[in-house]
Amino acid sequence: MSRPIKGGRRRLDASVPPEYDLPTREPRLDSPRAARVILTLVFVSWVVGTVGAGTSVVAIGAPSWIQRPSAALLMVVFALGLTHRGGGHMRIWVPMTAALGALAVTMETNLLLASAAAVTAVLAAVWAVLVTRPAASIIGAIGEYVLALLVASSGTLGVAAWNAPVNYQRFNLIVLTVSLGLAIALVWNLGAGLHGLGRQNFAILLGVAALVVLVLAYSSFVRTHGSQSIVQGFSDMVIWVRQTFGGAPRPVEVLIGFPALIVGVSLRSKRREGWWILVFAVIGTAVLTTSLVTPGAFPTYIGLSALYSSVLGLVVGLVLRRQFMKERSSRASRAIAPVVRVEPPRFAPLK
Q1: How many domains does the chain have?
Q2: Largest Cα–Cα distance in the chain?
Q3: How distant, in Å, are the alpha carbons of 57, 238, 281, 321, 325 from that of 274?
Q4: Residue 16 lies inside a defined structural domain of this protein
Q5: Cα–Cα distance for residue pair 293/164, rounded to 1 Å
Q6: CA-CA distance, 136 to 117, in Å (whole number)?
Q7: pTM
Q8: Tens digits of per-residue pLDDT, 218-253?
Q9: 267-308: per-residue pLDDT in tens?
Q10: Which of 143, 153, 162, 310 could be joined to 117 by an S-S link, Cβ 3.0–4.6 Å?
């Protein structure tokens, strides 16, 4: 006589492949060959624009007239990539961006140059985050981290190539605000809205947001209303670090922006709420894209500062990743198959 099968705990079914949890738009091109050709042209344009814009930072004897057209080409590439990745209307945003670039190159007025530089910085900062893919392993997370910083660095060169006459503090604040607003608008659906966070992660995000506001407000207050001794102390410390190491890491990137990039791409491999972590990664990429906007900035100092910030931010991010990637409960850890979340390919729309 056989014994009746007792009911047990519900297990994850490893035989069912995971599916993407958002509807996506139809492919813009029906022919896969045409899509590959367009992708190749966009990649070549990105490389050409980056090299041309880089001549504004590295003196290689290239004519100066190629700098702003290269920046305009980069701006169009960023607009195309971000619009396609976010599922937007290509016929609206890309022609508008191209028109701004053409007007800025031909007329060269202060307003147009500043606007083009700001748009380049915003598009590069947000696209650098959206072009990433979920990474379940440490090696994969580091690869996505490097890719995002490469895209943001090309945006830095594009902003420098515009050589726009702007006030750095005001320009940085505008780019940071617009980048965060655009990132939140795009992530709202990708991250299932605020109700998809859960109490614990929602509290963490509120804490990080409060830390961001505190750091930015305190640094601005110290520069404008701090006592002479405090301001002089900060200046002396920065000068010592600069003279000793050739650059100084930026706290906003090390403590907030770059660690959020590592944690976000890792958490996305399990849960959609990883997108909300990546909102704060835009802070790091936005600060990076605006670092060479002023003509008086020293490229070597900015480059070393970005290098130090990226290395320290990677270390902090890997430490935080270990905490965030832990299973929420013992029940989840007893599942047969690990929780796996898939997303469309890197150059496919996310929605």
Answers
A1: 1
A2: 91
A3: 35, 34, 11, 11, 10
A4: no
A5: 7
A6: 35
A7: 0.85
A8: 666 666 665 666 666 666 776 777 777 778 888 888
A9: 888 888 888 889 889 999 999 999 998 877 788 888 899 999
A10: 162
